[in-house]
TrEMBL record:
It comes from Gluconacetobacter entanii. SUPFAM superfamilies: C-terminal domain of transcriptional repressors. One of its GO terms (molecular function) is transition metal ion binding. Pfam families: FeoA. Residues 1-77 form the Ferrous iron transporter FeoA-like domain. InterPro entries: Fe-transptr_FeoA-like, FeoA, FeoA_core_dom, Transcriptional_repressor_C. This is Ferrous iron transport protein A. The keyword Iron applies. Coiled coil: none annotated. Keywords: Iron. The keyword NADP does not apply.
Length: 86
């Protein structure tokens, strides 16, 4: 599942950040900010009508991401089958 698909309020674990190109400066910056494997992440707010941005938290830090940026972050919900959505 991609971070932009995670419902508001649900916590997931980051698996990886995908590069859209090589090199991908956005993916690199996400990793620098803490979007790294095994880190818990939660969507805390979304823009009206599914727009940009979405607010996500990692630890005590919140980030505003565009949906296309959040789509680079692959996550899983603990206890959920891979490929299934909540």
């Amino acid at each position: 599942m991609r971070l932009n698909e995670l419902p508001r309020g649900m916590e997931a674990i980051i698996d990886r950040v995908e590069d859209a190109s090589h090199p991908d400066p956005v993916a690199g910056r996400l990793r620098e900010l803490g979007f790294v494997p095994d880190e818990p992440v939660r969507v805390v707010a979304t823009a009206p009508m599914g727009g940009d941005p979405i607010a996500v938290s990692i630890g005590f830090t919140r980030f505003a991401l565009r949906r296309d940026e959040a789509a680079r972050v692959i996550v899983h919900v603990p206890g959920q089958q891979p490929g299934s959505h909540p």
